[in-house]
Amino acid sequence: NYQKSINLAEKKQDNSYLVWAQLNYSSYRYHYYQYSQMLPVFVAAVRKIENLKDHQIILPQQSYKQIAWVMQTIGATDDAITYFVKSSNRLQDDSSEKASLLDNLTICYIKKQEYEKALKLLKEANTIAYKVNDSLRIAKTYGNMGNIYLLQKQYDKAIEYLLKDIKFLKK
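The structure corresponding to this sequence follows.
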């Protein structure tokens, strides 16, 4: 039970475990779209994690990723970027998860209309996805590139990349 874990960590005054329990509770509520129950606990966890040193955080890469997802969902784009970068920096260069994080980070830059930065990250994610043979991520990066070109009214390039996306989705 998440609440028992949170209560136990509070009783022991162990912020490392408290943050971990709060983030897991928040993740559970997030996945079931129970945002009103999630947000107070999530905010408390983020406030606490900001005061912890990296070595005090349980699974920091995963913790940062969870925070990034929620921040992106609630529209806190700059905070999402910060946590996506923190999470990404803790991963191997050539992994599906790194490609996924970079791909999702680009969505933040698209929201900010920073298309060149987004394209640069998408190309990096695409290269990694090819290296690790992640055809789903290859397709997603092509689709996101196509969407950027569409937003920039570069229709020929948009079509080219969206067709690449479809090609990899059919595999």
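The chain is about 80% helix and 0% strand.
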